[in-house]
Amino acid sequence: MFTGIVEELGTVAGIDHGSASAVLRIEGPLVVSDATHGASIAVNGVCLTVTEHDGTGFTVDVMAETLERSSLGALAPGDRVNLERAMPADGRFGGHVVQGHVDGTATITARTPGDRWETVDFTLPPDLAAYVVEKGSITVDGVSLTVAHVGDDTFGVSLIPTTLDLTTLGHKGVGDVVNLEVDVIAKYVERLLNHRQEVAS
The whole model's pTM is what? Predict the structure, then answer.
C-alpha cells in the first residue's frame, strides 16, 4: 500500500521492449536506499516489483495489461517519473489509501497559474466519474490530491508549490497523459450496495 506522497523524482534510464512486455531501468537513489529484491515501488502511481537494484536505481518488469491501462507504455529514456516506496506498517499516513492499481488515464486539458499555486484540469473517463467528488481524494500519477472541482467529464486539482517542484505534475503540459486511481473506499461501498440490492431482489 502507498499514500500518494511522492518521495523522489526518478529518471527512466532505459527500456527493453518485448513483444507484450517491457523492462524498465529507473534511476532513483533514495527509493533504492533500503530496497530488496521483490520490494514494491510505485512508478507514476503504478505498483511495480523490484527485480534488480543497486545504489543508484532499480529494474522492474511491466506486463502487457499495465502497459495498456497506464501511461507507462509511452515512457522514453530520460523521462521523469514519480517514485514512492510501499508504506511501512509503522509509517506516517500522509496522503490517502493508494493501492498502486491504476483505474485509467486522463489528459491534461488546461493549466491556470495562481499566485503561488496552479489549477490543473483533466479529462474524466466516464467509467470513473461516479468515484470522483469535490473535496474527495484522487491519485494522479501517484500523487495524492484533493479534487477542487468536478464536471460531467472533467475534474481539476490545485497544486501547491511543493507539488509543482517535487513531482512530474509541475512539468507536464496540456495534452499530456496521466494515470488515475480513484478512491478504493468508494469502489468498495459501490460493490457492497450493489451486492445488497442483488440479494434483496
Answer: 0.92
